[in-house]
Prior knowledge:
Order of helices and strands: EHEHEHEHHEHHHEHEH
Distance between the termini: 25 Å
Amino acid sequence: MNDRAKGNGRILLLACGALAREVLALKAMNGWDDFSIDCLPADLHYRPERITPAIKAKLDKARGKFDRIFVLYADCGTGGELDRLLEAEGIERIAGPHCYSFFDGNDAFAARAEEELGTFYLTDFMVRHFETFVWKGLWLDRHPELLPQYFAHYTKLIYLAQTDSADFRIKAQEIATRLGLAYDYRFNGYGDLAGFMQSALPPSA
């Protein structure tokens, strides 16, 4: 996806590919035509050290083409490197350590952090792509004996849902059973993502 492929607006949103469906849905349902959207590959989460250089390359390419740029990435395992880059560039990102937090609502997620230690989280994206990003991504399709090692410190799975889908709820429950974890469902919708996108718009939008 190039930097003008999704919209002709003068505000660029650089987003994680795992958020693409939600970002495009919010743009469409609210008529936010000011936004152009460019998504980076979701599998960068396997190598978080590559996220910041990938964002920098996109920023360099977009320079001078947009009135404003915002980044739809949390820290996502970059260890503060992303924030250091964005501070130097004068660019704002959505708050939070990861997308589970801002989908849940950063304040609510932080308040529950201690009681939810040992929790494995799913979003709509993770439910949809569990086989690719988790099962095959961790080589569990070839080495299922590694399952107890990977999930030894987890006790519960919480599905933080963006859409109210019966099929996704069933699939999330099946994933929890497969991983040997207790299951909980929490419908959050778009959490803090919607508010952040709204705040990125010009005052008259």
